[in-house]
Amino acid sequence: MQFPTRHDGSCGTTLLLDDSDRSKLPVVRAVNAVGLDDSAAALAALRPGCALLQEHSAPTFLRPGLSGHRLSGADGAGGSWSTKFETTDVTYDDAVLRISARDDLAGLAVETTVEALTGGALRIRHRLTNEGAAAYVLDALEVSLPLPDDHVELLDFTGRHERERSPQRHPLADGVWLRESRTGRAGLDSPSMIVAGTAGFGFGHGDVIALAVGAVGNGTMSVARSAAEAARISGGELLLPGEIVLKQGESYETPWVFVVAADDGLDGAAAALHRWQRSLPAHPGIQPVTLNVWEAVYFDHDLPRLKELANRAARVGVERFVLDDGWFHARRDATAGLGDWWVDPDVWPQGLTPLIDHVHALGMQFGLWFEPEMVNPDSDYFRAHPDWVLSAKGRLPVLKRNQFVADLSNPQAWQHIHDSIDAVLQTYDVDYVKWDHNRELLEAGSPARDGAPVAHRQAAAYLALLDALRQRHSGIAWESCASGGGRIDLGTVEHVQRFWTSDMTDALSRQQIQRWAGQLIAPEYLGAHISSPTSHQTGRTLSLDFRAATALFGSFGIEWDLTLASEEDLDRLASWCAIYREHRELLQSGTAVRLDCAEPTVIAHGVVGADGRDAIIAVVQLDEAASNRGVTLRIPRLQDELTYRGEWLGPVDLKPVSHTVGLPEGGPFADAQATGAALSQVGVWLPRRRPETITLLRLRA
């Protein structure tokens, strides 16, 4: 059988499933980007494949999908360590497939759910139930899928603070390629996903299968292959020792594991996830122009200065003004106050109302920063409840950023934090919350559980806290931030309207960060701000046009002390805000494309309208090119038969660079027009441009 049914050859990730032998779990023979006809399905059915839940008894000597044991046996442990599930039921419709199985000898039952998502991706999860009398200690429960033998290259990501989403690529080899997230969130070095593909796959070409785990806490992804067994790709939650102990009748459910098969490269896989995200109830729709005051004032909160900053923000077209860290009790620097969520009367003797009223009177929304899960030792919270932070038994974890992590798995701590934040949001007319999370979970045990690990419970409690506050304050939009680019994942995206992509606001560094963050998350979620002329992170000075054109393709905003900007800069910034507002519907609803360019100092990317009738393409000259050959842009996803006219968008420097020609005044095709087929196959040639410049092309049918 194929799920979902795509006998017409329509696009969308499809499983070819063999459930003919009910004495074992169904076997996935193939994962395809399109539905197979009967002849192709018959051939694919001859492949060995693998079950969605891998069992040692299958047999397999690769990593099992279920690892655990029952607290029974000769030594009081080790029972039911190996399972052999038998299928009891398989049901499906156009959108959902369910597989039920049980192992009576092991006393375990499992239900696997596969959902077909809007946009063409699938998501899969297991639910394991202990039906035996003795407790069952679960160590791992993962979803697995087979990989075709021509998927011979792997891509995933690593990173650091201010340099997240760095791609790494290598050939698939025998053994295990294992990526783990152990920081209690999708970390700054998060793999984001693992992509397996045909040799040389790129943004617009090649067959790929991408897997991502929708865990908001710890996660694991892997690819395994041996000389005897074909490659398979797997993912699930990473569980700490003893975290999940199932008593009789209790169940554990994995996070959703997302899988996308595409025959048009990385952009095809990304597009499927973006289309699903745009169908979510929490999707933000069109994003306002946002100004965050952090790099303008840091902890120096002064009402007259902030009012003047708001005046200038309104002048250039800002629609949302966000007050960042520093407004609450004793928060004069990063060493104190976290956990004490009330307005500091020493800094704000009249509360936040004067600023909020001023911002609203200027026609802007007001946003406020919180870090609900963090605690400074120098806080009333910690002095009153030192046992309300995560710690292993008998000791506190090493401090980082002068912070501990609040124990949200403790109901008393959870309620205290909920009530404190709720009181602020009840008191003040807040339109937007930036929710930060600035340190990893180290030794994530709970004193309320005698120091036992609670990373799984902590992640669940975080979502429960966020959702409880969302329900009580339904008019507020929510941004997820975690040291910049952490906690960007397919679990959190169902609950927020925005992510802070990175604490790196240097536009040149942002090119690669934003380029690859978009592999997982639609661009309208990804905060992209125009920084000050000289970057606070790198010390590099970049033009306003370069900084603004970089921010244009994300959730556009500003991170700059506008009280220091010249009148000329304010006028130029206002024109860029106007460009964003004019084009944001296309930018935030179209299909993101990244062009494969032969010139290594150029990257090109953009958005093509969902109907293929218009596009905006950015040509980014990162550095000096070694040649004067220029670059040819082959623009995908246009309609072949339509004729397009082109124009330059925003400020453009038409002058030639030495020993080259300039840009044509009439637009990228001069005064001519071009068909979609010509643009995708022949392409548009542009001469070498000056380094650290962006040229924007606007195409319309």
UniProtKB/TrEMBL annotation:
> What CDD domains does the record point to?
GH36
Q: Which UniProt keywords apply?
A: Glycosidase, Hydrolase
Protein source organism: Rudaeicoccus suwonensis
Q: Which residues form the signal peptide?
A: none
Recorded catalytic activity of this chain's protein: Hydrolysis of terminal, non-reducing alpha-D-galactose residues in alpha-D-galactosides, including galactose oligosaccharides, galactomannans and galactolipids
Domain of life, per lineage: Bacteria
Tell me one GO biological process term.
Answer: carbohydrate catabolic process
Cross-referenced PROSITE patterns, in alphabetical order?
A: ALPHA_GALACTOSIDASE (PS00512)
Which top class of enzyme applies to this chain? hydrolase
The organism's taxonomic lineage, starting at the top:
Bacteria, Bacillati, Actinomycetota, Actinomycetes, Micrococcales
The UniProt entry, under Pfam families, shows: Glyco_hydro_36N, Melibiase
- Name of the protein described by the UniProt record: alpha-galactosidase
Q: What is its EC number?
A: 3.2.1.22
User: What Gene Ontology molecular-function terms does this entry list?
Assistant: alpha-galactosidase activity
**Record domain Glycosyl hydrolase family 36 N-terminal: where:** 56-246
